[in-house]
Amino acid sequence: MKSVSCSIALLSAFALAVLATPAGAFQDCPTGVPCTMYTGAGSNGSFFRISVPTDWDGDLVVYNHGFDLNRKHIRGHETCENNGALHCEADADCGADIACNEISYSGLDALLLPMHKAVAASTYSDTGWAPFHSAKDIQEILKFVKKEPAIGKPKRVIITGHSGGGAVTADATLNMKIDGAVPMCGAVAGGLPTWDVAGDVRLVYDFLCDEVTGGKFNSAPDLGEKTSANSGADSVGMALKVNTCFGVLFPSSDPVEAEAQANRFDDFIALTRFTGTGTEALTAIGFTTLGLGDFVRDPKRLNGKRIGFNSGPDLDYTSMGTDLALAAEYNVGVKRLTKGSGRAKLTKASYPDFTKGKGKKVAYPILSMAGAQDWLVIPPFQSVYDRAAQIGGKLLTQTWIHTYGHCVFTEQETAALFQEYFAWLDSADLAAAQPSAEDIKQACLALPDGIDGDTCNFDTSYVNTNLDDRIPARNDWPGAAYSH
Description:
alpha/beta
Protein backbone atom coordinates (compact mmCIF):
# COMPACT_ATOMS: atom_id res chain seq x y z
CA MET A 1 0.00 0.00 0.00
CA LYS A 2 1.55 3.26 -1.11
CA SER A 3 1.35 6.14 1.32
CA VAL A 4 2.07 9.82 1.81
CA SER A 5 3.85 9.74 5.15
CA CYS A 6 6.06 11.85 7.35
CA SER A 7 6.59 9.15 9.96
CA ILE A 8 9.89 9.22 11.80
CA ALA A 9 12.29 6.30 12.15
CA LEU A 10 14.77 7.26 14.84
CA LEU A 11 18.54 7.50 14.43
CA SER A 12 18.69 7.87 10.66
CA ALA A 13 15.69 10.12 10.14
CA PHE A 14 15.02 11.82 13.49
CA ALA A 15 17.71 14.44 13.14
CA LEU A 16 18.08 14.40 9.40
CA ALA A 17 14.57 14.99 8.13
CA VAL A 18 11.01 13.88 8.30
CA LEU A 19 11.01 13.82 4.52
CA ALA A 20 13.68 11.56 3.10
CA THR A 21 16.02 12.75 0.35
CA PRO A 22 16.18 10.24 -2.52
CA ALA A 23 19.51 9.29 -4.03
CA GLY A 24 18.51 9.95 -7.65
CA ALA A 25 17.92 13.13 -9.57
CA PHE A 26 14.85 15.17 -8.63
CA GLN A 27 12.07 15.82 -11.13
CA ASP A 28 11.07 19.42 -11.72
CA CYS A 29 7.56 18.22 -12.65
CA PRO A 30 5.71 14.93 -12.14
CA THR A 31 5.81 12.62 -15.14
CA GLY A 32 3.34 13.72 -17.81
CA VAL A 33 2.43 17.01 -16.11
CA PRO A 34 3.92 20.08 -17.84
CA CYS A 35 4.95 22.73 -15.35
CA THR A 36 7.51 25.43 -14.66
CA MET A 37 9.60 25.31 -11.51
CA TYR A 38 10.91 28.42 -9.76
CA THR A 39 13.30 28.62 -6.82
CA GLY A 40 14.26 31.52 -4.60
CA ALA A 41 15.47 32.72 -1.22
CA GLY A 42 13.62 34.73 1.40
CA SER A 43 15.05 37.74 3.18
CA ASN A 44 14.62 35.87 6.48
CA GLY A 45 17.08 33.10 5.57
CA SER A 46 14.62 30.60 4.11
CA PHE A 47 14.66 29.01 0.67
CA PHE A 48 11.66 27.98 -1.40
CA ARG A 49 10.50 26.11 -4.46
CA ILE A 50 7.38 26.73 -6.56
CA SER A 51 5.91 24.56 -9.33
CA VAL A 52 3.24 26.02 -11.61
CA PRO A 53 1.35 23.83 -14.10
CA THR A 54 0.93 25.02 -17.66
CA ASP A 55 -2.86 25.10 -17.19
CA TRP A 56 -2.77 26.81 -13.78
CA ASP A 57 -6.20 27.81 -12.43
CA GLY A 58 -4.82 30.42 -10.02
CA ASP A 59 -4.84 28.40 -6.78
CA LEU A 60 -1.52 28.13 -4.93
CA VAL A 61 -1.09 25.40 -2.30
CA VAL A 62 1.81 25.98 0.10
CA TYR A 63 3.08 22.75 1.65
CA ASN A 64 4.88 22.84 5.02
CA HIS A 65 7.26 20.06 6.00
CA GLY A 66 7.57 18.41 9.39
CA PHE A 67 10.22 18.33 12.09
CA ASP A 68 13.82 18.71 10.93
CA LEU A 69 16.77 19.56 13.17
CA ASN A 70 19.37 19.49 10.40
CA ARG A 71 20.45 23.08 9.71
CA LYS A 72 22.09 21.90 6.48
CA HIS A 73 18.60 21.47 5.05
CA ILE A 74 18.09 25.23 5.13
CA ARG A 75 19.57 25.33 1.64
CA GLY A 76 18.27 26.02 -1.82
CA HIS A 77 16.61 23.28 -3.87
CA GLU A 78 19.19 21.15 -5.68
CA THR A 79 22.17 22.52 -3.78
CA CYS A 80 24.66 20.46 -1.82
CA GLU A 81 24.15 20.15 1.93
CA ASN A 82 27.79 20.98 2.61
CA ASN A 83 27.86 23.91 0.16
CA GLY A 84 24.71 25.89 -0.55
CA ALA A 85 26.37 27.59 -3.51
CA LEU A 86 27.02 24.31 -5.34
CA HIS A 87 24.24 23.17 -7.69
CA CYS A 88 23.47 19.45 -7.91
CA GLU A 89 21.13 17.15 -9.75
CA ALA A 90 21.80 14.07 -7.61
CA ASP A 91 23.68 13.10 -4.45
CA ALA A 92 26.67 11.97 -6.49
CA ASP A 93 27.24 15.57 -7.62
CA CYS A 94 28.10 16.58 -4.05
CA GLY A 95 30.68 13.94 -3.18
CA ALA A 96 30.74 10.86 -1.01
CA ASP A 97 28.07 10.68 1.70
CA ILE A 98 26.81 14.21 1.01
CA ALA A 99 23.20 14.77 -0.01
CA CYS A 100 21.78 16.98 -2.71
CA ASN A 101 19.11 18.99 -0.92
CA GLU A 102 15.49 18.68 -2.01
CA ILE A 103 12.73 21.07 -1.02
CA SER A 104 10.09 18.39 -1.03
CA TYR A 105 6.34 18.57 -1.64
CA SER A 106 5.94 15.14 -0.02
CA GLY A 107 4.20 13.87 -3.15
CA LEU A 108 1.51 16.56 -3.24
CA ASP A 109 2.77 17.88 -6.58
CA ALA A 110 1.77 14.61 -8.27
CA LEU A 111 -1.74 15.05 -6.83
CA LEU A 112 -2.28 18.80 -7.11
CA LEU A 113 -0.55 19.83 -10.35
CA PRO A 114 -2.89 17.62 -12.44
CA MET A 115 -5.75 19.39 -10.62
CA HIS A 116 -4.33 22.63 -12.11
CA LYS A 117 -3.07 23.87 -8.74
CA ALA A 118 0.39 25.38 -8.24
CA VAL A 119 2.45 24.02 -5.34
CA ALA A 120 5.13 25.68 -3.21
CA ALA A 121 7.25 24.73 -0.21
CA SER A 122 9.78 26.42 2.06
CA THR A 123 12.73 25.22 4.10
CA TYR A 124 11.68 27.70 6.83
CA SER A 125 14.34 29.95 8.33
CA ASP A 126 14.23 28.01 11.64
CA THR A 127 14.83 24.37 12.47
CA GLY A 128 12.82 22.07 14.71
CA TRP A 129 9.16 21.84 15.65
CA ALA A 130 8.80 25.49 16.61
CA PRO A 131 9.62 27.60 13.52
CA PHE A 132 8.52 30.91 15.02
CA HIS A 133 9.06 32.76 11.74
CA SER A 134 7.15 30.41 9.45
CA ALA A 135 4.46 32.96 8.58
CA LYS A 136 7.17 35.33 7.35
CA ASP A 137 8.74 32.47 5.40
CA ILE A 138 5.42 31.78 3.66
CA GLN A 139 5.02 35.49 2.96
CA GLU A 140 8.37 35.41 1.16
CA ILE A 141 6.93 32.82 -1.23
CA LEU A 142 3.84 34.95 -1.84
CA LYS A 143 5.92 38.07 -2.45
CA PHE A 144 7.99 36.22 -5.05
CA VAL A 145 4.93 34.81 -6.81
CA LYS A 146 3.21 38.18 -7.04
CA LYS A 147 6.32 39.90 -8.41
CA GLU A 148 7.24 37.16 -10.89
CA PRO A 149 5.77 38.29 -14.26
CA ALA A 150 5.34 34.72 -15.46
CA ILE A 151 3.23 33.81 -12.43
CA GLY A 152 1.37 36.77 -10.95
CA LYS A 153 -0.97 37.13 -8.00
CA PRO A 154 -2.69 33.86 -7.03
CA LYS A 155 -6.47 33.68 -7.04
CA ARG A 156 -6.40 31.80 -3.73
CA VAL A 157 -3.70 30.68 -1.29
CA ILE A 158 -4.24 27.42 0.60
CA ILE A 159 -1.86 26.30 3.35
CA THR A 160 -1.24 22.65 4.23
CA GLY A 161 1.38 20.49 5.92
CA HIS A 162 2.16 17.37 7.94
CA SER A 163 3.09 17.08 11.63
CA GLY A 164 5.14 20.17 12.52
CA GLY A 165 3.99 21.49 9.15
CA GLY A 166 0.44 20.97 10.35
CA ALA A 167 1.29 23.27 13.27
CA VAL A 168 2.65 25.80 10.75
CA THR A 169 -0.64 25.47 8.87
CA ALA A 170 -2.65 26.12 12.03
CA ASP A 171 -0.49 29.15 12.76
CA ALA A 172 -1.19 30.48 9.27
CA THR A 173 -4.95 30.19 9.86
CA LEU A 174 -4.56 32.53 12.82
CA ASN A 175 -1.86 34.91 11.63
CA MET A 176 -2.08 35.24 7.84
CA LYS A 177 -4.56 36.48 5.30
CA ILE A 178 -5.09 33.29 3.30
CA ASP A 179 -8.00 31.54 1.60
CA GLY A 180 -7.95 28.03 3.00
CA ALA A 181 -6.19 25.51 5.22
CA VAL A 182 -5.75 21.73 5.28
CA PRO A 183 -3.76 20.74 8.42
CA MET A 184 -2.67 17.09 8.37
CA CYS A 185 -1.73 15.29 11.61
CA GLY A 186 -0.78 18.72 12.92
CA ALA A 187 0.55 19.60 16.36
CA VAL A 188 -2.22 22.21 16.45
CA ALA A 189 -2.77 22.54 20.21
CA GLY A 190 -0.65 25.69 20.39
CA GLY A 191 2.73 26.36 21.92
CA LEU A 192 2.02 25.91 25.60
CA PRO A 193 -0.16 22.76 25.60
CA THR A 194 1.98 21.01 22.97
CA TRP A 195 5.24 21.65 24.76
CA ASP A 196 3.80 20.97 28.21
CA VAL A 197 2.93 17.48 26.96
CA ALA A 198 6.50 17.12 25.72
CA GLY A 199 7.82 18.59 28.96
CA ASP A 200 5.87 16.09 31.03
CA VAL A 201 7.39 13.26 28.98
CA ARG A 202 10.81 14.59 29.94
CA LEU A 203 9.80 14.91 33.59
CA VAL A 204 8.61 11.31 33.65
CA TYR A 205 11.89 10.22 32.09
CA ASP A 206 13.87 12.15 34.71
CA PHE A 207 11.77 10.67 37.53
CA LEU A 208 12.56 7.16 36.31
CA CYS A 209 16.11 7.58 35.01
CA ASP A 210 17.99 10.29 36.93
CA GLU A 211 19.51 7.70 39.26
CA VAL A 212 20.51 5.36 36.42
CA THR A 213 24.22 5.64 35.68
CA GLY A 214 24.62 6.91 32.13
CA GLY A 215 20.91 7.60 31.70
CA LYS A 216 20.59 11.11 33.11
CA PHE A 217 20.23 14.26 30.99
CA ASN A 218 22.14 17.14 32.56
CA SER A 219 20.07 19.95 31.05
CA ALA A 220 17.13 21.53 32.84
CA PRO A 221 13.90 19.82 31.72
CA ASP A 222 12.44 23.04 30.32
CA LEU A 223 15.68 24.16 28.67
CA GLY A 224 16.39 21.02 26.68
CA GLU A 225 19.62 19.65 25.29
CA LYS A 226 22.06 21.81 23.37
CA THR A 227 22.11 20.88 19.70
CA SER A 228 25.05 21.12 17.33
CA ALA A 229 25.59 21.30 13.59
CA ASN A 230 25.91 17.50 13.64
CA SER A 231 22.29 16.66 14.41
CA GLY A 232 22.84 13.02 13.52
CA ALA A 233 25.42 12.61 16.26
CA ASP A 234 23.15 14.49 18.69
CA SER A 235 20.28 12.08 18.08
CA VAL A 236 22.48 9.00 18.38
CA GLY A 237 23.90 10.23 21.70
CA MET A 238 20.40 10.94 22.98
CA ALA A 239 19.15 7.52 21.90
CA LEU A 240 22.02 5.68 23.58
CA LYS A 241 21.37 7.54 26.82
CA VAL A 242 17.68 6.58 26.75
CA ASN A 243 18.61 3.01 25.88
CA THR A 244 20.78 2.87 29.00
CA CYS A 245 17.68 3.52 31.09
CA PHE A 246 15.01 1.64 29.10
CA GLY A 247 16.92 -0.92 27.01
CA VAL A 248 14.65 -0.31 24.02
CA LEU A 249 17.40 -0.61 21.41
CA PHE A 250 19.41 -3.41 23.01
CA PRO A 251 18.84 -4.53 26.61
CA SER A 252 21.71 -4.92 29.07
CA SER A 253 23.61 -8.20 28.95
CA ASP A 254 23.08 -8.40 32.72
CA PRO A 255 19.69 -10.13 33.21
CA VAL A 256 18.99 -8.22 36.42
CA GLU A 257 19.64 -4.85 34.80
CA ALA A 258 17.73 -5.88 31.66
CA GLU A 259 14.70 -6.60 33.85
CA ALA A 260 15.11 -3.24 35.59
CA GLN A 261 15.26 -1.51 32.18
CA ALA A 262 12.06 -3.23 31.08
CA ASN A 263 10.32 -2.29 34.35
CA ARG A 264 11.33 1.35 34.00
CA PHE A 265 9.99 1.42 30.45
CA ASP A 266 6.72 -0.16 31.62
CA ASP A 267 6.45 2.61 34.23
CA PHE A 268 7.12 5.19 31.52
CA ILE A 269 4.24 3.80 29.47
CA ALA A 270 1.95 3.69 32.51
CA LEU A 271 2.58 7.33 33.43
CA THR A 272 2.56 8.88 29.94
CA ARG A 273 0.05 6.57 28.20
CA PHE A 274 2.48 6.54 25.29
CA THR A 275 1.11 4.28 22.55
CA GLY A 276 4.21 3.75 20.42
CA THR A 277 6.98 1.19 20.43
CA GLY A 278 10.24 1.41 22.33
CA THR A 279 12.13 2.93 19.42
CA GLU A 280 9.28 5.36 18.86
CA ALA A 281 9.60 6.39 22.51
CA LEU A 282 13.16 7.40 21.65
CA THR A 283 11.74 9.80 19.09
CA ALA A 284 9.29 11.28 21.59
CA ILE A 285 12.07 11.82 24.12
CA GLY A 286 14.18 13.31 21.34
CA PHE A 287 11.55 16.00 20.84
CA THR A 288 11.55 16.94 24.50
CA THR A 289 15.35 17.03 24.77
CA LEU A 290 16.89 18.00 21.41
CA GLY A 291 13.74 19.43 19.86
CA LEU A 292 12.96 21.60 22.86
CA GLY A 293 16.56 22.72 23.27
CA ASP A 294 16.68 23.69 19.61
CA PHE A 295 14.21 26.55 19.98
CA VAL A 296 14.49 27.43 23.68
CA ARG A 297 18.24 28.04 23.35
CA ASP A 298 18.00 29.71 19.92
CA PRO A 299 18.85 33.48 20.17
CA LYS A 300 16.28 34.18 17.42
CA ARG A 301 13.48 32.47 19.32
CA LEU A 302 13.48 32.11 23.12
CA ASN A 303 17.16 32.87 23.79
CA GLY A 304 17.35 30.60 26.83
CA LYS A 305 14.07 31.69 28.41
CA ARG A 306 12.63 28.54 29.90
CA ILE A 307 9.09 27.35 29.24
CA GLY A 308 8.36 24.88 32.04
CA PHE A 309 5.53 25.18 34.56
CA ASN A 310 4.16 22.45 36.82
CA SER A 311 4.28 24.04 40.26
CA GLY A 312 1.47 25.15 42.51
CA PRO A 313 -0.97 23.36 44.80
CA ASP A 314 -3.58 22.85 42.09
CA LEU A 315 -1.34 20.95 39.69
CA ASP A 316 -1.90 17.35 40.66
CA TYR A 317 -0.48 14.26 38.91
CA THR A 318 -2.26 11.66 41.08
CA SER A 319 -4.69 10.71 38.32
CA MET A 320 -2.05 10.70 35.57
CA GLY A 321 -1.63 7.55 33.53
CA THR A 322 -2.95 4.06 34.16
CA ASP A 323 -1.32 3.12 37.49
CA LEU A 324 -2.73 5.27 40.30
CA ALA A 325 -0.23 4.04 42.90
CA LEU A 326 2.64 4.95 40.60
CA ALA A 327 0.98 8.29 39.81
CA ALA A 328 0.79 9.11 43.53
CA GLU A 329 4.48 8.31 43.89
CA TYR A 330 5.24 10.45 40.84
CA ASN A 331 3.20 13.36 42.19
CA VAL A 332 5.48 13.46 45.23
CA GLY A 333 8.76 12.89 43.39
CA VAL A 334 8.38 14.84 40.13
CA LYS A 335 10.57 17.91 39.64
CA ARG A 336 8.49 21.05 40.08
CA LEU A 337 9.20 23.93 37.72
CA THR A 338 8.11 27.49 38.37
CA LYS A 339 6.63 29.37 35.42
CA GLY A 340 9.38 30.11 32.91
CA SER A 341 9.67 33.57 31.37
CA GLY A 342 9.65 32.03 27.89
CA ARG A 343 6.01 31.01 28.19
CA ALA A 344 4.81 34.51 27.38
CA LYS A 345 6.75 34.59 24.12
CA LEU A 346 5.68 31.05 23.28
CA THR A 347 2.08 32.17 23.75
CA LYS A 348 2.60 34.99 21.25
CA ALA A 349 4.18 32.58 18.78
CA SER A 350 1.37 30.01 18.91
CA TYR A 351 -1.94 30.38 20.73
CA PRO A 352 -5.06 28.85 19.11
CA ASP A 353 -7.85 31.36 19.56
CA PHE A 354 -10.40 32.07 16.83
CA THR A 355 -12.28 34.63 18.91
CA LYS A 356 -10.01 37.64 18.40
CA GLY A 357 -7.48 39.18 16.05
CA LYS A 358 -6.99 37.72 12.58
CA GLY A 359 -8.32 34.37 13.74
CA LYS A 360 -11.73 35.93 14.41
CA LYS A 361 -11.96 36.98 10.75
CA VAL A 362 -11.39 33.48 9.36
CA ALA A 363 -14.38 32.60 7.18
CA TYR A 364 -12.89 30.00 4.83
CA PRO A 365 -13.27 26.22 5.24
CA ILE A 366 -10.72 24.19 7.20
CA LEU A 367 -10.48 20.45 6.52
CA SER A 368 -8.25 18.47 8.86
CA MET A 369 -7.00 14.88 8.83
CA ALA A 370 -5.22 13.15 11.70
CA GLY A 371 -4.39 9.70 13.02
CA ALA A 372 -6.62 8.29 15.73
CA GLN A 373 -3.65 6.19 16.87
CA ASP A 374 -0.86 8.69 16.25
CA TRP A 375 1.75 8.13 18.96
CA LEU A 376 3.60 11.43 18.43
CA VAL A 377 1.05 14.08 17.48
CA ILE A 378 -1.46 12.68 19.92
CA PRO A 379 -5.20 12.98 19.08
CA PRO A 380 -5.96 15.36 21.99
CA PHE A 381 -3.88 18.02 20.20
CA GLN A 382 -6.63 18.11 17.55
CA SER A 383 -9.30 18.58 20.23
CA VAL A 384 -7.78 21.92 21.18
CA TYR A 385 -7.82 23.24 17.60
CA ASP A 386 -11.26 21.76 16.94
CA ARG A 387 -12.70 23.34 20.08
CA ALA A 388 -11.02 26.67 19.29
CA ALA A 389 -12.69 26.61 15.89
CA GLN A 390 -16.05 25.71 17.43
CA ILE A 391 -15.80 28.55 19.93
CA GLY A 392 -15.00 30.90 17.06
CA GLY A 393 -17.83 29.53 14.90
CA LYS A 394 -15.56 28.27 12.11
CA LEU A 395 -16.26 25.91 9.24
CA LEU A 396 -14.01 23.02 10.29
CA THR A 397 -14.38 19.33 9.47
CA GLN A 398 -12.11 16.88 11.29
CA THR A 399 -11.41 13.46 9.78
CA TRP A 400 -9.65 10.54 11.46
CA ILE A 401 -7.53 7.71 10.06
CA HIS A 402 -7.33 4.55 12.18
CA THR A 403 -4.11 3.06 10.81
CA TYR A 404 -1.22 2.97 13.27
CA GLY A 405 1.75 5.32 13.05
CA HIS A 406 2.66 8.98 12.83
CA CYS A 407 1.20 10.86 9.85
CA VAL A 408 0.60 7.76 7.76
CA PHE A 409 -1.94 8.49 5.03
CA THR A 410 -2.50 6.67 1.75
CA GLU A 411 -2.55 8.32 -1.65
CA GLN A 412 -6.30 7.73 -1.86
CA GLU A 413 -7.00 9.26 1.55
CA THR A 414 -4.96 12.33 0.68
CA ALA A 415 -6.56 12.63 -2.78
CA ALA A 416 -10.05 12.41 -1.30
CA LEU A 417 -9.18 15.06 1.26
CA PHE A 418 -8.04 17.60 -1.32
CA GLN A 419 -10.68 16.80 -3.94
CA GLU A 420 -13.45 17.29 -1.41
CA TYR A 421 -11.74 20.35 0.01
CA PHE A 422 -11.61 22.16 -3.32
CA ALA A 423 -15.21 21.18 -4.07
CA TRP A 424 -16.13 22.75 -0.72
CA LEU A 425 -14.01 25.83 -1.35
CA ASP A 426 -15.63 26.34 -4.76
CA SER A 427 -19.18 26.15 -3.39
CA ALA A 428 -21.44 29.17 -3.48
CA ASP A 429 -22.78 28.36 0.00
CA LEU A 430 -19.90 27.17 2.18
CA ALA A 431 -22.01 26.33 5.21
CA ALA A 432 -24.47 24.25 3.20
CA ALA A 433 -21.68 22.47 1.30
CA GLN A 434 -19.59 21.54 4.34
CA PRO A 435 -18.62 17.86 3.97
CA SER A 436 -18.80 15.43 6.85
CA ALA A 437 -16.10 12.90 7.71
CA GLU A 438 -18.35 10.28 6.12
CA ASP A 439 -18.42 12.31 2.90
CA ILE A 440 -14.62 12.27 2.77
CA LYS A 441 -14.61 8.52 3.36
CA GLN A 442 -17.10 7.90 0.56
CA ALA A 443 -15.05 10.10 -1.78
CA CYS A 444 -12.05 7.93 -0.99
CA LEU A 445 -13.96 4.72 -1.69
CA ALA A 446 -15.09 6.13 -5.04
CA LEU A 447 -11.51 6.61 -6.21
CA PRO A 448 -9.67 3.96 -8.25
CA ASP A 449 -8.29 1.39 -5.79
CA GLY A 450 -10.32 2.95 -2.98
CA ILE A 451 -10.76 0.01 -0.61
CA ASP A 452 -12.27 0.20 2.86
CA GLY A 453 -9.72 -0.84 5.49
CA ASP A 454 -6.86 -0.84 3.00
CA THR A 455 -6.41 2.38 1.04
CA CYS A 456 -9.35 4.13 2.76
CA ASN A 457 -8.96 3.89 6.53
CA PHE A 458 -11.33 6.57 7.77
CA ASP A 459 -12.76 6.11 11.25
CA THR A 460 -15.97 8.11 11.28
CA SER A 461 -17.01 6.90 14.74
CA TYR A 462 -13.85 7.96 16.58
CA VAL A 463 -14.46 10.21 19.59
CA ASN A 464 -11.45 12.24 20.68
CA THR A 465 -10.32 12.79 24.26
CA ASN A 466 -9.38 16.05 25.95
CA LEU A 467 -5.81 17.19 26.40
CA ASP A 468 -6.26 17.71 30.13
CA ASP A 469 -7.23 14.04 30.41
CA ARG A 470 -3.64 13.30 29.36
CA ILE A 471 -1.70 15.72 31.56
CA PRO A 472 -2.72 18.27 34.21
CA ALA A 473 -3.86 21.54 32.68
CA ARG A 474 -1.83 24.72 33.27
CA ASN A 475 -3.73 27.88 34.09
CA ASP A 476 -2.14 29.82 31.22
CA TRP A 477 -3.36 27.45 28.49
CA PRO A 478 -5.84 28.76 25.90
CA GLY A 479 -9.43 28.18 26.94
CA ALA A 480 -9.97 25.59 24.20
CA ALA A 481 -7.40 23.30 25.84
CA TYR A 482 -9.56 22.71 28.90
CA SER A 483 -12.38 20.20 29.22
CA HIS A 484 -15.80 21.78 28.90
